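sry for the spam today, last one i promise. C-alpha cells for design, 377 residues
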C-alpha cells in the first residue's frame, strides 16, 4: 500500500541533504562552538552560517537571531520574556484567540502572573484585522502577538498592517509574530514589516525536529527563561544543538531556492482538491479562499474526526484533526471562527508537502467518498 502523507503542517520529511549535513557535523565538525581551539572555531563557523541562512529567509539581521529547541520554546520566550521585560510600563497583552497552543498557554501563564489578556477573534475570513488590534491596544498594553499563518485553516494575516496599527496606538508596544507555518511559504520580511520578534522552526520545512529560532529586533528587550552559560548572548544558554542547527540551515537553503515553484504546485493541488470534493455530499470547506494553498481544512459532517482519521489511515492516507500539539483536543481555532460543534467535531486538516502529487489527491477524494457512504449509513 502506498503511503500518502498529507500532514505536513504537523511535521515534514527531512531533506536527505539536511540529514547528511547533520551527520557530517556529528562525525566531522563535532567541536563545541564555544571552544577556543580549531575544532571549536570550525563549529562556530557552521553555527554562524546557519544563523545567516535562517535570518536571511525572514529578511532579518542575523545578529538578532537566537537558536532555540523549537517553535514552542521560541514562542514562550517571546511572549513571557517580552511581557515581563515591559511590565513596568503596563500589564496588558493582546493575543489572537486562534494562536498555537504555545502562545495561548504563554498568555494564560501571564494572566496567572497578574497580566490582563485581551483575546482577538478572527473575522468571517479567518483574519485578525488591523482595526481590531488598534481598538484593543491601549497605553497599558506591553505586547501583541498575532501569527503570520494560522496552522489549522491556513489564514494569512496582514502582519505589516496589524503591527503598524498596534504601534500607531502605542509606539512602545512589543509586537511578536509566530511565523512557523508561513516560514519559507509566504513572502515575509521581518525588518520591513516593523515587528519586534519572529518565531520560526526547522521541522515544518524539511529540517529536523528539536531546533527553531527567535529573531529579536535590535533595541527590543526580552528576559530569558533559561539560565546557564554565555551561549546565544545568554538569552538561550546551553550548548547549541549543532547538528540540528546545521541541518536547519541546509533545509532553509533548499526551501528558499524552490519557494516560487513550490507555491505554484501547492496552488494547483489546492484548486484540484477543492474542485474534486465539491460534489461530495456532507463535506464543507472550513479554510477560506485567502488561505495559504498547502493547508485545506474540511469537515465531513456526521463523521467524528478521529473516526475519519483512522478510516483514512487504513487506506495509507495520513491527515490530522488540527494542531498535532493539541493531541486530538477540540479545535479552539474553529471555535474562534464561530463554527458549531458538529462542524468542529468532524474537521480534518489536509496539508500538502513537496512530495504530494495529484494522484494522492485522487486517492484521498475516493477514500473520503467511501467513508461518507460507509460510515454515514
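last one done:
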Amino acid at each position: 500500500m502506498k503511503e500518502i502523507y498529507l500532514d505536513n503542517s504537523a511535521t515534514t520529511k527531512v531533506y536527505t541533504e539536511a540529514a547528511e549535513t547533520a551527520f557530517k557535523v556529528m562525525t566531522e565538525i563535532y567541536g563545541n562552538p564555544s571552544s577556543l581551539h580549531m575544532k571549536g572555531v570550525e563549529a562556530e563557523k557552521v553555527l554562524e552560517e546557519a544563523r545567516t541562512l535562517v535570518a536571511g529567509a525572514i529578511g532579518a539581521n542575523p545578529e538578532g537571531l537566537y537558536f532555540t529547541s523549537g517553535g514552542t520554546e521560541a514562542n514562550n520566550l517571546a511572549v513571557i520574556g517580552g511581557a515581563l521585560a515591559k511590565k513596568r510600563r503596563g500589564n496588558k497583552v493582546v493575543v489572537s484567540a486562534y494562536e498555537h497552543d504555545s502562545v495561548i498557554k504563554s498568555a494564560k501563564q501571564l494572566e496567572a502572573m497578574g497580566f490582563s489578556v485581551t483575546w482577538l477573534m478572527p473575522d468571517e475570513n479567518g483574519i485578525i484585522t488591523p482595526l481590531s488590534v488598534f481598538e484593543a491596544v491601549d497605553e497599558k498594553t506591553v505586547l501583541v502577538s498575532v501569527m503570520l499563518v494560522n496552522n489549522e485553516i491556513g489564514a494569512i494575516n496582514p502582519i505589516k498592517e496589524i503591527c503598524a496599527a498596534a504601534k500607531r496606538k502605542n509606539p512602545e508596544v512589543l509586537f511578536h509574530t509566530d511565523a512557523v507555518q508561513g516560514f519559507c511559504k509566504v513572502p515575509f520580511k521581518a525588518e520591513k514589516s516593523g515587528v519586534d520578534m519572529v518565531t520560526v522552526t526547522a521541522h515544518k520545512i524539511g529540517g529536523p525536529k528539536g531546533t527553531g529560532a527567535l529573531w529579536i529586533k535590535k533595541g527590543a528587550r526580552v528576559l530569558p527563561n533559561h539560565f546557564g552559560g554565555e551561549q546565544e548572548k545568554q538569552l538561550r544558554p546551553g550548548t547549541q544543538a549543532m547538528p540540528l542547527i546545521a541541518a536547519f540551515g541546509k533545509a532553509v537553503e533548499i526551501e528558499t531556492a524552490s519557494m516560487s515553484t513550490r507555491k505554484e504546485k501547492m496552488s494547483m493541488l489546492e484548486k484540484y482538491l477543492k474542485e474534486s470534493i465539491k460534489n461530495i455530499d456532507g463535506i464543507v470547506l472550513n479554510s477560506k479562499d485567502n488561505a495559504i494553498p498547502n493547508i485545506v481544512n474540511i469537515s465531513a459532517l456526521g463523521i467524528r474526526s478521529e473516526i475519519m482519521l483512522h478510516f483514512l489511515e487504513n487506506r495509507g492516507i495520513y491527515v490530522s484533526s488540527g494542531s498535532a500539539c493539541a493531541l486530538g483536543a477540540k479545535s479552539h481555532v474553529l471555535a474562534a471562527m464561530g463554527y458549531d460543534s458538529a462542524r468542529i467535531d468532524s474537521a480534518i486538516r489536509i496539508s500538502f508537502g513537496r512530495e504530494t502529487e495529484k494522484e494522492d489527491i485522487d486517492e484521498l477524494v475516493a477514500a473520503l467518498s467511501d467513508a461518507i457512504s460507509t460510515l454515514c449509513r
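The longest helix spans residues 38-57. ok im logging off now
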